[in-house]
Amino acid sequence: MRKIVHFSLASHDEVIYRDEADLGRGFNCLAEACLETDSRLLADGLMSTHHHGIAQTDDCKALIHTERYAYTRYFNARYGRKGRLGEQKPFMLAIEGAFHLLVALNYVNRQGLQHGIAATPFDYPFCSANAFFRKELGKEDTRRLMPADQRYKYLPDRSSIPANVRMTDSGMLFQEDIIDTSYVEQVYITPRNYIFQMNKLSDEKWNEQQRSDGTDTPIITLELIETGVGGIDVEQLLRNENGRVNTNQMKDMDLCKLIDTVYIPRILKGGQVKSVYQLSLTQRNDLCNTLWQDIPRIYNKRTTVPQLKRCACLNY
Known about the structure:
Blueprint: E1 3-10, H1 20-36, E2 40-46, E3 50-57, H2 60-79, E4 91-94, H3 98-109, H4 111-114, H5 175-178, H6 181-188, H7 191-199, H8 204-211, H9 222-225, H10 234-240, H11 252-267, H12 281-298, H13 305-311
Antiparallel strand pairs: 1-3, 1-4, 2-3
Helix pairs in contact: 1-2
């Protein structure tokens, strides 16, 4: 029997989406997995260290396995890495009740806001916030399409994604062509309510509404949604809902780009694959020490030791 499930795949030790290309491929792998397992995607949010999704599916384990297998093959080939990507056991939660589903959708759609990367949910392109009520919200589409003969480069091997599913010129499938937007829009009822939900601060009223569902699903909170992600400060996520982005803190993606495009080429001179995974443990430690000094001095940004470790894959 098909159920609505929230799932999360995370990594505590390393960044699993190092740049926009990785994020785009990650979504494409999820889209392919939904097609292969006859699942319907309702929402998604991809961050540097983890990925949230909500889907109607008969077999959530198969959905996650198919997605992870395809993305791991891509990631390992690109960066010369080996082994499983992400924690062994992903988080899964079956969702019952209208208000439970509404709150779960809110949290997934607002990932960019809650993690302090964007000032609004709509300002982060790698979650599904912009997939709904596009016409009603006046979202003019200026995205350019990938030429048909180039699409295969950005899809999993032997992909069965239909040709009518559009792809941007950066290689990411259109989220609204994959997500069951009609179903989700019925949950939100109106575009006005959708905007309200995207801007509303988390509060006890959400919990009270969920209790009225009378289901066995536990109360959906940020703490529950982020179960298994690791290193998450829920209180900070709640403060981030105010939309005050800390521009002084270097973001994971920016730090990974710095490592991959500036520092790694200085360290690794030969070889076809040049990535942080080709560095020895000593070289990674030295890289972290160098970045600790360079980031505030050269780039006028802040970083933390845990961030340096995950972006330099020091614990891999």
